[in-house]
Write a structure and sequence with these properties.
By secondary structure, this protein is an alpha/beta fold. It is built from 13 helices and 15 strands. The structure holds zinc ion (ZN). Zinc ion (ZN) binds next to loops.
Length: about 400
Amino acid sequence: MTARILASSAAPVRQSSVRAHNLALALQTVANSANPLSRASISAATGLTRATVSALVDDLIAGGLLTELDPPPRTGAGRPAAGLALASEGPAGLGMEINVDYLAACVVDLGGTVRHRLVEHADQRLSDPPTALGHLARLARRARTLAGDLRLAGAALAVPGLVSPDGVVRVAPNLGWQDVDAAALLREQLGVPVTVDNEANLAALSELRTTGGPSFVYISGEIGIGAGIVLDGVLYRGMRGWSGEIGHLSVHPDGPECRCGARGCLERYAGQEAILRAAGVTELTDIDATAAPALGEAASALGLALAGVVNLLDVDTLVLGGSYAPLVPWLRDGIAAELRRHVLTAELAPITLRAAALGADAAMRGAADAVIRSVLEDPATWLSGAGRT
Ligand SMILES: [Zn+2]
């Protein structure tokens, strides 16, 4: 690794790659600022000359990535500078999610605003992948139209399963899918580049951007249960990208059989179906304080699994997302009791247990954000036309 970095930094740097680097630097400086920036402030923040910044900014405006806002009213001598901001009518990201009991799509603009979102409840268990993804593509196209037909920079899909880097869903036990080339199937339908990632990973990235982290484990509770591990501000994906399968931690080795083939998995005690069954209701929204005692077994199982996570990773924050987010008041005490019992350092360091910031939309928001980030990190490709649709 080190040798490769040395070799590449010793090679002469091409003019085009300097420009690509500087375009990204200028664009990200604007993206990271809470207020519109002048060319002079970009120059001051980046160390690039004013002439260079002006040329870069002109290119970014012409390519639809930056927009020039009207200058604020004159308050003293001199002409106030026009502020630069990310163009809300610039390239947008399409975020999609397929989960066991719903399909969802949203369009997020370059500034991070959700322009439209659609959620459709439909059972996807043992669904035929081309049919299910065709259905999702239609939902996504509708969201795109309702968002004002913004140009898409690309699309990303969140799935409840293990995904290989080329966008193939290797296994999604609760959908009954195996080796499904979801990226290719959706690319064909949508006509834009598509990436695919695990839903808990994408939701954890959303949480990281919303709250700043820096270290936490995000637990996404749906029919299945996944986890996104964020350490020092970076998502830990594991060697092959398959980390976080907390739903298949065994909490009772002799427990009931799971869809994965093993026994006593956490999902069998704390997945959405187990929670609804325990509470004696058909909708999560029907669960209130009176149902809290019935969620005791789910809370204990979750607490036991999470105690193992804390003992292993030494994180101080656990974030409950997906369908768990609104249930935190009824799950909290049961989880905390197991953490106190099983976490070695429980007496030494408190553990924060909280609901996710973005609720149920976190995974598809994370998917749309992944597209937006790819533009912010490499605006030169977008400007060259390769990224336009
Ligand atoms: Zn299992």
